[in-house]
Write the structure tokens for this entry.
Amino acid sequence: MAKFNVLVFPSGEINAIELHSALSSCVNIDLFGASSVDRHGPFVFKNYFSGLPYINEADFIPKLNKIIDEYSIDLIFPTHDTVALFFAENKEKIHSKVLTPDLQTANICRSKKKMYSFFSDCFFIPKIYKLEEALKFPIFIKPDEGQGGKGATLIKSYEELEAIETIDDYVISEYLPSDELTVDCITDNKGALKGVFPRDRQRVFCGVSVAGQALKANSEIINIAQTINKRLNFIGLWFFQVKKDIMGHYKLMEISSRVGGGMCLTRARGVNLPLLSVYITMGYEIDVIQNKYHVQMDRTLINRYKTDIKYEHVYLDFDDTLVNDEKVNLDVIRFVFQCTNEDKKIHLLTKHEQNIYDTLKRVHIDPKLFYRIVQIPVDGEKYEHINHKNAIFIDNAYRERHAVMIKCDIPVFDVDAIEVLLDWRK
């Protein structure tokens, strides 16, 4: 199979980071990120383009096409609904393929009013109110053009409704009391629905699912997915969201043609929707299989860092740093291999009281990982064995770090600060 150059735009939000997780390790994908405003993208995309114009600026497409042409971009993943609509409107002007449906589908996905009107004859549409109608409270309002649950509000009285100054920009619907489900789907390049993967949203933070579990698609959910897929023209991944009404029937909340930040849960089943979407868009036939185990997901914020440290040598402690209680510290060994990949030299400085080579063998660490291994007497000083200024020092012992900082004037790190040194860009 050929290798494909894939661009994610914009590349700073959580669904862009999911695309990075899904695609950056694939051997036949070279991944690129680009944004108009820098957020988290520079911390994870090795190939990153900063400062593109906004999509409503006249020079956006020319500057985007310059990147496409220079780096032979094959496919663009838009990560925002408005961006997806913009790309659908301007497909003919863009010099690469774009993972977006046709213009009618993109318009319906961007506007809930258009979506509800288009599917008004379907069993899965909730009751939609007009302001002049008699309303049965509580009701639910949400922005016509919105995503991630932002602006969605439960309204319990006319007084609360009248307080919404921009109510014409909202959809007013019956209140659906159940928890929300997201249903990930994928459609091949012939329009066939190839997979339906529900997941619940047990906890939501800023409109993003941060906890949930994979669920089995029942006949009602499959029916909704098939109806949507038959009436609209998707290619690759898409998703829709549903909640149950008071009778226990699923009602449609929204549809989106972009990647969802919670699609990691479907990927955890063994179904990499972004990768399959690349293959579909590039004209390949796909087959979708999934593992049968049950999987839950829970996540919180992760720390990633940039520093201005320049170093070529790492002086590393062994006991309670690289190894603790005969177990290898996984964060530290990851960093060791990161340095090896970057041709940085690792100097193992240790006061280990046994033969260090015997212990390395016992914990399955190859001594060849290290540029040199220095076994120091217990009463010796590690700073005396540090010979480079373009170096850092890692040791769990405060006394050792303090001495090295004073005597050698190089950055020092405890084990808990290894995360500052990890490079997630790829």
